[in-house]
């Protein structure tokens, strides 16, 4: 690889790691998963695992490690996508950055 263009990336090179607070499995998912404890009011960065793009938002609530954060506002009764598939339905409205857990989502499993 020539040093003439610092913007070029050689095939097989990894992108620089981005410090992130949550992961999103697929573009179009409605929730991300916290990779560390997130505090209410914190500006947080999420990384899409399918293409490594990022999104930045403000958390509206404390979100524990491994729990979900809302990536978009949604109305009650809306199907929720994670992994690119429906995992449940909202039981109350959400706002961007809300904590998503059993109080506002009903699983598709039962």
TrEMBL record:
<protein>
    <submittedName>
        <fullName>UxaA family hydrolase</fullName>
    </submittedName>
</protein>
<keyword id="KW-0378">Hydrolase</keyword>
<dbReference type="InterPro" id="IPR044144">
    <property type="entry name" value="SAF_UxaA/GarD"/>
</dbReference>
<keyword id="KW-0456">Lyase</keyword>
<feature type="domain" description="SAF">
    <location>
        <begin position="29"/>
        <end position="106"/>
    </location>
</feature>
<dbReference type="InterPro" id="IPR013974">
    <property type="entry name" value="SAF"/>
</dbReference>
<dbReference type="GO" id="GO:0016787">
    <property type="term" value="F:hydrolase activity"/>
</dbReference>
């Amino acid at each position: 690889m020539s040093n003439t263009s610092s913007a070029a990336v050689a095939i097989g090179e990894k992108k620089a790691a981005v410090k992130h607070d949550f992961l999103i499995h697929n573009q179009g998912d409605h929730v991300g998963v916290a990779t560390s404890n997130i505090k209410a009011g914190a500006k947080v960065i999420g990384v899409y695992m399918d293409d490594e793009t990022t999104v930045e938002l403000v958390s509206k609530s404390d979100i524990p490690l491994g729990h979900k954060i809302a990536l978009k506002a949604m109305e009650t009764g809306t199907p929720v996508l994670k992994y690119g598939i429906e995992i449940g339905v909202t039981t109350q409205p959400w706002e961007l950055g809300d904590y998503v857990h059993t109080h506002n989502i009903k699983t598709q499993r039962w």
